Amino acid sequence: MALLLPGVLLVLAAAAAAAATSSPCPERCGGVNIPYPFGIGDKRCFRQGFEIECRNKLDSEVPVLAKTNMTIPVLDLSVAPLPEARVRLPVAFQCFDPAGNRTAGYSGNVNFNQQGVYRISNARNELYVLGCNTPKAPGSRAAAASATPTTPVTTATASTQPMALATSATVTKATRGTPTSSTDAKGNCEDNDGSYDCKCPPGYHSNNGNPKEEPCIPNLPSSAKLIIGITVGTSVVLFMILGTGVFYKLKRIKKKEKERQMEAIEKKNGSERLKNVKTLLLFTKEELDQITNNNSVPLGKGGFGEVHKGTLSDMTEVAVKTSNEVTKATLHEFVREVEIQSRMMHRNVLKLLGCCLRVDVPLLVYEYAAKGSLQDILHGKSSDQQREPLTLRSRLDIAIGSAQGLAYMHSYTENGIQHADVKPGNILLDAGLVPKISDFGLSKAFIAGKDYTMNVIGCLAYMDPVYKDTGRLTPKSDVYSFGIVLLELISRKPVGTGESSLVKQFQRAFEQHNTGKVMFVRDIAEEEEDIPTLDEISILALKCLKEKVEDRPAMVSVASALVMLKVSWEEKRQRFSSTSGNLGLSEGAPPRSDSPRK
Questions:
Q1: What is the pLDDT of residue 165?
Q2: Judgement on whether residues 386 and 362 belong to the same structural domain of the protein
Q3: How many CB atoms lie within 10 A of CB 313?
Q4: Residue of 191, 376, 421, 478 marked active site
Q5: Each residue of 575-595: b (16+ CB within 10 Å) or e?
Q6: Which domain holds residue 285?
Q7: Which of 310, 335, 368 is the last residue of a domain?
Q8: Which residues form a coiled coil (predicted)?
Q9: Residue numbers of the chain with a pLDDT score lower than 50
């Protein structure tokens, strides 16, 4: 194969040389050179408009311009230094008789060809006029010689004269201003006083309208323009449709991905079980944002985050609170506690209405307690806040309701549920001062039957010392904490710690005076007949504070005892009112004795 290649190349070279020597394009006619782009014969021998015919006349060859309206002999053709064709053209004439009548004439009009590549050169020809009264156009180079006096003649004979024609023959691709195209369409450029003018041939145009500077390109047919317009318009529409489709497709993909993420979070937070709890409402984050008006009304801070007020569509006021984060280890416990809380139906237990599981940390929706916590009522939210007055009746109702709520929790299930963090801050009050036990189970997660824990959690000032020291948690742990709440409720004094704690102060008062009168808050101890009732409440509280768990009463017994105390107190108040009326005493307090009770 490699040995044959040189031979093949030699054959090809020889064929090319033979083709060159046997060119079908004559280069001379009648002694006139025919340089390209002029040509004779095959259309490949000349550019459009530059065809030359070689005619035989009297046994000789005469070159003439092709496709003209008359025979125009060619004397010389050149492309440099000026593009020019020297030809013989007939001369215009007119003949008149002595009377001034026109007897003969010729206008001199010549149609070279349709391509318009020739014109009479202004620079290479001069016009001479013979005769009188012959007009000329002002400034015309074709009539540059002024009319001069001549000798009148009566006859003249028409003849031809040599004439230089300006052409575009020498303007090639290498020349500036050449209008060309990829289809080899050449512009027609003509000499014009040392410069040249160009125009595109029929069927072609220049983009900027100046063929001297831009190539000539084919004109698009109307059908092609229509097709292009339809194609472009269709492409734009399809692109817009495709773009819109892609946009919404990506949007759907993003929405589905977000939905999958939300479902995963929901599942992590126990939705598979909680969605079957009929007493529990499941909210989305967007719904809670609307319910709370984007958390615009803060109520305070819970153990794990802020609490905000909200309003449901039925105008029920609620509190939205952050729960603790759920992990795989705590999932079962969390779900169990939500189930239990949502099913609890007691007037004195804060109702869990629903939750939002489509967030990293679940949000819990509770009923709203308008008055806030018992802690705020007793001591105020700040030191400069005036405390709300509380009658003994109100305090008894708060104590009874709180005890009944805790007793309900302890007996709710077979093993019962402990709160493990009973304190005034976890007893909420509605607008009618009805107490609601809150913040149990979910934050501390203590279920009865699990008697010991390694994680002792709660407020130390209210904590059962047995639970604190040993981790042993029983329903009596809540009883102990409630005993401190009772003392705080009737004294309105801070809990304190150590020897100055509220418990120690009450114990010393009873040891020294056999009464807790010195500890009672003045606004409920003004009436002497109320002191015995307050003492009985104090004694019940101290029973709840026994060191031995077994010596403490059950919460249901505490609630019953408080109910009996209220009934007894109301009877005493009624008898006292009757006695005071019979004695003619005012409704004020009876005579008081400042001596301690024996």
A1: 84
A2: no
A3: 8
A4: 421
A5: ebeeeeeeeeeeeeeeeeeee
A6: 275-368
A7: 368
A8: 248-294
A9: 1-22, 137-156, 170-186, 194, 442-449, 454, 583-598
